[in-house]
Q: What sequence folds into this?
């Protein structure tokens, strides 16, 4: 689904990502854990195009089937790589993509709004909902790149089903929601774009433990319904429990990777991130 | 410092301001009682908060007494100081040009001669203290009375409904008065009938907006809006040349305010060089309407064998041209500043505005430099010559006012529709967080450029009408102050709110014409008004719904968390 190949990202002269490579397969939850300043958010921002990589490549593999289980694929054309409105997209026939029966789009040279249209949706750190827009408008902003009205309406209903609390708050401005509700809104907004892959940045940040637990439960549920998720977390324990695989990031480099169980059992991880 | 003393000090500052701009002198012999009533009103507004705290009337009365006495003592000292200075022939007029014997004499209730001869009885100062202490008591009494019985009386549903209809009827009553005062043989107590009518016209227009707000959405609102629209459209026919010319400029600024609001209010791009597009629109029309005034265009036309003595295009033919040039100007400014935000953007746009003005000033061959473009033609209609309008019921300024009204209505309609559109949503999202907006699929470059371009187009329209109104335009017409006025009026009115912008324009462009006497203090008045506005109503007179949300909700952010999860 998503492949990063030796990505290097800079903030002016600061070398933040030093050759990060990772893969997220269709239907997986993959978590990226690491301490403060390791480059987790930078990685997500590089994928979503808010930051641009100076070297390396990011590929999004397309297979044609869509995200939400039980839904029909998006109307042909609206999602076909190669015609993101106004942007030329480089389509590569890469071996791994061909093996999966699709093609790959190179993301790292596209502007952020074009990446969003390709179905990469980021729920940013610190939630960053539009505080002046109502909850309904926030969710509608999530579907900004879409034009299929019927599909938007279906996804709207789906998000409200997932977060019943939001349906009580639809006409309220986003800024008046509590922290947990804002997090739900941020995730809901990302889902409204009907993402191929959902990038979640610290969804548990600043939430009470019970709330964080509930958020993780929802993440599992979203994934069970067919959305691929790349989850960035400080709370390594919870993230590894919910994820299929994980990567450990340390000062801009991937130092460890593997399936969640083995990472949870790894003494190095336990010492550094699980506080055991 | 006790709160009551502080209230007194604020009242003193406010009264001093009135003294410095010469209000007592203009009122004449009744200045002291009138100022005392004004102060009483101020105390009433200010002391209302005291009620909730302590509750009992005695406390409120004591607070009023203290505040009033403070203000009174200070005013007496101030008048004493000025009377002494004036009496001893100290020349303070070069600094404070309104501190003259008439002014201070009116404040003390004596003849101007008494000031000049330094013969003011001590009793007069005492009287001032008594008056303002009285106004403090008056305010407190009003608070106590309203707090006790009147408030409950007025909040009964029947009274609320009656009050609502009263406010809705108000603009129509005022309009009737305006029209009545315009009849040829109506006498008025004041000699200055024109100014009184202008003030009434401004209030009528403003109260119409409030009336519209009070109507219930649906049929009621449609009916009232239609009637109000008809009423406003009748104004240019009822007013005389002076009032029409003021209202014309007010609504030209409404057009600009609505355009600037798209850039600043919706898209959040602080543009201090907005006058540039106004100037581009004005000069574009000027060039095609008065080609003979520009040496370059004149010789160009002569080379081409075209006569340069008459307008190339009429007002309506030139309209798309003025819009297009302004739009291009907007995009040209937009491209280099795409990456800038906030303060940096403000500085660059400020520079852009000045560059355009300096171009107009220094490109003498094209723009005729400081001598300006002269004899710009007035707008006609469907081939009718402009004179056809100025001869009958409608004066030439009335015709401009009517055009400005219709254009404002059109622009307001477009602006309101844009605000609710997909693009409007994208602007607000971009204003809140560019990165997140981008990540949800907003094309930042296009969205920003559209804001600049649409805002500039509206300014171009306003500029064209302005050129037609002025007949002769000069580079000085397009100074930084135009930008500042346009920005100030949307801030005062309420950023993001179309009715607020009309109110802002009425207040900032209309009121100074009424208060001709304080015109030299206009900038000070602006400043004072802005400061007071920002304290009393930080979101503007009629804030947009979104801004109101934001202010009211600022302290709700740390709400208790508790969520319900659908585990199905």
A:
């Amino acid at each position: 689904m998503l492949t990063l190949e030796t990505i290097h990202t800079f903030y002016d002269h600061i070398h933040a990502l030093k050759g990060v490579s990772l893969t997220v397969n269709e239907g997986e939850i993959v978590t990226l854990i690491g301490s403060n300043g390791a480059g987790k958010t930078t990685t997500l921002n590089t994928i979503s195009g808010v930051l641009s990589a100076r070297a390396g490549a990011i590929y999004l593999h397309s297979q044609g089937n869509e995200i939400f289980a039980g839904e029909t694929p998006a109307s042909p054309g609206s999602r076909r790589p190669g015609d993101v409105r106004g942007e030329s997209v480089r389509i590569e026939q890469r071996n791994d993509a061909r093996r999966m029966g699709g093609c790959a789009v190179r993301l790292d040279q596209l502007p952020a709004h074009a990446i969003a249209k390709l179905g990469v949706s980021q729920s940013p750190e610190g939630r960053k909902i539009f505080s002046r827009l109502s909850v309904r408008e926030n969710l509608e902003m999530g579907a900004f790149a879409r034009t299929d009205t019927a599909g938007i309406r279906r996804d709207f209903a789906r998000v409200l089903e997932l977060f019943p609390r939001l349906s009580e708050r639809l006409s309220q401005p986003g800024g008046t929601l509590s922290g947990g509700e804002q997090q739900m809104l941020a995730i809901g907004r990302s889902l409204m774009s009907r993402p191929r892959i959902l990038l979640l940045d610290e969804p548990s940040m600043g939430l009470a433990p019970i709330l964080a637990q509930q958020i993780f439960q929802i993440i599992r549920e979203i994934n069970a319904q067919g959305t691929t998720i790349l989850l960035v977390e400080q709370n390594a324990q919870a993230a590894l429990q919910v994820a299929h695989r994980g990567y450990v990031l340390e000062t801009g480099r991937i130092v460890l990777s593997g399936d969640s169980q083995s990472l949870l059992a790894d003494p190095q991880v336990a010492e550094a991130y699980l506080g055991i | 410092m006790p709160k009551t003393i502080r209230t007194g000090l604020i009242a003193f500052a406010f009264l001093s301001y009135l003294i410095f701009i010469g209000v007592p002198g203009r009122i004449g012999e009744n200045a002291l009682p009138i100022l005392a009533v004004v102060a009483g009103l101020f105390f009433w507004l200010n002391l209302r908060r005291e009620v909730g705290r302590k509750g009992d009337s005695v406390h409120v009365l004591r607070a009023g007494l203290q505040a009033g006495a403070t203000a009174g003592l200070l005013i007496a000292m101030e008048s004493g100081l000025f009377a002494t200075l004036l009496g001893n022939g100290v020349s303070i007029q070069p600094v404070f040009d309104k501190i003259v014997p008439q002014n201070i004499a009116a404040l003390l209730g004596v003849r101007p001669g008494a000031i000049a001869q330094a013969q003011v009885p001590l009793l007069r100062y005492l009287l001032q203290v008594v008056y303002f202490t009285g106004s403090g008591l008056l305010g407190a009494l009003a608070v106590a009375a309203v707090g006790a019985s009147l408030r409950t009386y007025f909040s009964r549903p029947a009274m609320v409904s009656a009050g609502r209809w009263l406010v809705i009827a108000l603009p129509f009553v005022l309009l009737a008065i305006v029209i009545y005062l315009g009849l040829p043989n109506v006498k008025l107590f004041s000699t200055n009938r024109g100014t009184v009518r202008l003030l009434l016209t401004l209030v009528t227009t403003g109260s119409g907006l409030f009336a519209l707000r009070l109507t219930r959405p649906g049929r009621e609102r449609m009916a009232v809006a239609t009637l109000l629209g008809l009423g406003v459209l009748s104004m240019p026919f009822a007013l005389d040349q002076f009032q029409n010319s003021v209202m014309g400029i007010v609504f030209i600024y409404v057009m600009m305010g609505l355009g600037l609001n798209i850039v600043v209010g919706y898209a959040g791009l602080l543009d201090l060089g907005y006058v540039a597009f106004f100037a581009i629109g004005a000069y574009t029309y000027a060039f095609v309407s008065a080609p003979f005034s520009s040496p370059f265009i004149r010789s160009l036309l002569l080379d081409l064998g075209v006569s340069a003595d008459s307008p190339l295009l009429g007002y309506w033919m030139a309209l798309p041209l003025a819009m297009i040039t302004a739009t291009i100007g907007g995009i040209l400014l937009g491209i280099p500043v795409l990456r800038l935000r906030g303060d940096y953007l403000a500085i660059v746009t400020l520079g852009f505005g000045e560059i355009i003005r300096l171009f107009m000033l220094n490109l003498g061959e094209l723009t005729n430099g400081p001598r300006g473009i002269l004899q710009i033609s007035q707008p006609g209609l469907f081939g009718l010559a402009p004179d056809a309008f100025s001869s009958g019921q409608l004066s030439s300024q009335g015709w401009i006012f009517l055009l400005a009204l219709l254009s404002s209505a059109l622009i307001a309609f477009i602006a309101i529709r844009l605000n609710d559109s997909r693009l409007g949503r994208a602007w607000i999202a971009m204003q809140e967080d560019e990165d997140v907006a981008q990540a949800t699929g907003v094309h930042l470059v296009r969205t920003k450029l559209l804001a600049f371009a649409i805002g500039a187009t509206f300014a171009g329209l306003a500029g064209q009408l302005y050129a037609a109104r002025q007949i002769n335009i000069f580079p000085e017409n397009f100074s930084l102050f135009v930008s500042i006025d346009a920005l100030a009026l949307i801030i005062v009115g309420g950023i993001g709110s179309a009715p607020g912008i009309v109110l802002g324009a009425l207040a900032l462009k209309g009121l100074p014409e009424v208060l001709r006497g304080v015109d030299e203090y206009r900038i000070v008045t602006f400043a004072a008004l802005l400061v007071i506005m920002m304290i009393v109503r930080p979101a503007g007179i009629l804030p947009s719904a979104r801004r109101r949300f934001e202010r009211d909700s600022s302290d709700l952010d740390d709400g208790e968390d508790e969520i319900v999860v659908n585990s199905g």
